[in-house]
């Protein structure tokens, strides 16, 4: 059995086990509603947002970039007892379901293996608030609010960009330069021989550049006809 046939069999089995009650639109809507409400609430508590707060927000987003990077590697691609569920969902499910050639969901049901579990946005909010309170103990309270909002912005950006990474090649969002560039980096990350070593950033490849794991190739054309020819050649 070829690698592509194994992937198709896995996809069929995975889809068969998705609950009939699951709705990708509700999943995405819940994450967006909770995340945006949280960000609005945190910023609303900053009495006068100024350029210093802006720099603090940028710094938080840069910190998130490295959090995104190391969580992706350490939890998503290294099998450890404490993060076994994360590893299974990411390397076991996501990287088996989606390959470099088969990157696009067929329906909103496939978003279950594209997006993080919906409850994780709540966990992110709790962690953000907890760290924000610690920051507030050593500085003005608004710095805690800015930090909390920044972490949630990073989380939502991750979900958004990762979702865009799995859109069809001709989708309007994919034609946008930044999103299109990150999508190509993620496609390369889904290549079997690169998934453990290259392109772990989803929002901006800062940490990949710093850590020496950035890898680029020009996009290829993955047409349905080309894929059929590939199967027939085997």
In short:
The protein has nine helices and no strands.
Number of strands: 0
Q: Helical residue percent?
A: 55-70%
How many helices? The count is: 9
Low-confidence stretches: 224-234
Overall spatial form: globular
Biggest sheet record: none
The N- to C-terminal Cα distance equals 10 Å
Beta-strand content estimate:
under 5%
Question: How large is the radius of gyration?
Answer: 19 Å
Features:
single chain, 234 residues, mainly alpha, 9 helices, 62% helix, disordered C terminus
Question: What would you say this structure looks like, in words?
Answer:
There is one protein chain. With 234 residues, the protein is mostly helical. The chain is built from nine helices and no strands. The protein has helices at residues 3-16, 24-44, 51-74, 84-97, 120-138, 141-165, 177-189, 206-211, 224-233. Helix 2 (24-44) packs antiparallel against helix 6 and helix 3 packs across helix 6. The protein is globular.
What order do the helices and strands come in, and which of them pair?
Blueprint: H1 3-16, H2 24-44, H3 51-74, H4 84-97, H5 120-138, H6 141-165, H7 177-189, H8 206-211, H9 224-233
Helix pairs in contact: 2-6, 3-6, 5-6, 6-7
């Amino acid at each position: 059995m070829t690698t592509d046939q194994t992937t198709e069999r896995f996809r069929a089995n995975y889809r068969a086990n998705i609950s009939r009650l699951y709705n990708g639109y509700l999943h995405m809507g819940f994450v967006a509603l909770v995340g945006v409400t949280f960000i609005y609430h945190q910023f609303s508590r900053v009495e006068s947002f100024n350029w210093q707060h802006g720099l603090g927000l940028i710094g938080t987003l840069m910190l998130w970039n490295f959090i995104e990077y190391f969580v992706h590697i350490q939890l998503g691609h290294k099998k450890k007892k404490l993060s076994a569920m994360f590893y299974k969902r990411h390397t076991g499910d996501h990287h088996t379901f989606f390959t470099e050639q088969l990157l696009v969901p067929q329906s909103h049901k496939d978003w279950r293996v594209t997006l993080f579990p919906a409850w994780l946005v709540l966990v992110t909010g709790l962690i953000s608030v907890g760290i924000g309170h610690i920051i507030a103990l050593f500085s003005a309270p608004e710095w805690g609010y800015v930090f909390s909002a920044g972490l949630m912005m990073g989380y939502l950006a991750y979900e958004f960009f990762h979702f865009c990474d799995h859109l069809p090649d001709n989708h309007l969002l994919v034609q946008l330069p930044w999103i299109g560039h990150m999508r190509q980096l993620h496609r390369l990350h889904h290549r079997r021989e690169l998934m453990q070593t290259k392109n772990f950033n989803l929002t901006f490849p800062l940490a990949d550049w710093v850590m020496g794991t950035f890898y680029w190739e020009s996009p290829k054309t993955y047409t349905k006809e080309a894929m059929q020819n590939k199967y027939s050649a085997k």
